[in-house]
Amino acid sequence: MPESNQDELIEIFKNALVDILESKEHLTPTLNDIYDMFAKIRIKFPRNDKRSATITKHLKEHANKQIILDDLILHILQDFKNDILSCKKR
């Protein structure tokens, strides 16, 4: 059970990402999976090189087992908090 609003938010994104991973039969998330996660939650989060580079850095940390899936999502949300808040819902 989520203990805070942050935990609840991470859980929402995590559930969306896990659904995507299962449907695509991926064991670890890809850059496309992350963008698909935002789309699944109906947040318009356009691609750009800076975002993709930052997300790729976090994906590598996750792939190297330096961070768990919850932390991957948390890092992405923290890095793009202002961008996400300014994005319009689809």
Automatic annotation (TrEMBL):
The highest taxon in the source lineage is Bacteria
- According to UniProt, the name of this protein is Uncharacterized protein
Provenance organism: Helicobacter apodemus
